Fold:
Amino acid sequence: MKALGLALPVAMLTAVLLAVSGHAQDVVRADRGGFEAKLEYCKTCHGLSAQGYRGWFPMPRLAGQQPQYLENQLHAFIERRRTNPVMANVAHALNPSMVSALAAHFRSLDPRPIGGAPRQSVATGRRIYEEGIPEANVPACSACHGTEGHGQNEIPRLAGQLYEYTVGQLTGWAKVRGQGSAVDTSAIMAPTAHNLTRSQVEAVAAYVSNLP
Amino acid sequence: MSVAAPHRMHRATLLDKRVSFMKGIAWISALLKSALSKWVPLALVTTIAPALAGEDAAVRNCTWCHGTSAQGYTVAPRLAGQRPLYLESQIRSFREHIRDNPFSKQYMWGAVAALDPPTVRELAAYFATIPPRPANDGDWGLSARGRTIYMEGIPEANVAACYACHGPKAEGIREIPRLGGLSYSYLKARLEQWGQGYHSTPGSPMPIVARSLARDEIEALTSYLSFIR
Structure:
């Protein structure tokens, strides 16, 4: 009888402990929906200061990016207007208020450009950026992206962007952006991207990668 | 004529080599004779051992633990086919005592202490050229789930797709290591150690990734990776 009297509290305590430890995983999972957790998630690939990162793919700089542009792109990934299997999955796990909060945070970051672009064509790139190539129907980039390359509203910041990323986007524009029947703002860049030669793309990408 | 000249030069070089070899033998035997009484064991170690090991001594010092053809053995990971820049970065990390998990401290801190930078580069380049073989030691039943995690990540749990950095075939690039075919036990230990607060490469995003992975997710992922050829 006495042994049974002890056994009951011990059993109850064990049950409580098991329930608590079983919950630990759930608690961690719940935290995973928070702002800090999502921010860390972004930085896993985009660099610990959101400065961009060279993985197998070049992961673009998000620091200082225009919030409206970031929000538009996350929508484009979900709606498959912009082809990117990884980012489509990522964007699905973010609700609209989280997207706004993350975009506002990235806007406020200002790490130094990651660097690493070839140097020899920077002067050519600057000329194309500031004056365009009239004979090839390429307008000056600065007309929309700003003389400092900081962009505005839905027009992205280019300053400090990874060289490989900019080259990849401009050379593959029509294959990745503006997919499906819905027309989006990416259509504006399609003719310009098409009219630039590979070496001109590389020159512009090298120039903007160094801009602070 | 123009063909004969290099031929003769070649023979002359060989002859020179033979002469210098004979001189070397004479020098060694003189040394042995002079040291015969009490320095015999030391003389044997210092003159004969390096002659036997030759240029491969540095490689052999690695493969004692890392296995035949550097394919990995128990806790020592496969080096064959690994990205040379990754191998160099890890040797640096051992030397600077940054990579600090127990086996690194116990074995690698001492093992790399005497390696000079040119030797490090040569070793890394050499191991990178050896065709890697998969360890195949994971749980096959878990590998389909592991592949999904590798390719897509776990967005709701903030786990990034491994493939974005390590590549579609887990082959790695630059300083980012090849993971495909490394042993289940090694990969599992590394992921767990990041979660436990051990360090590796400064600035690496891997501690964040490892913190976000649950135990069963690590087991699935590393099972999948162990089968990749």
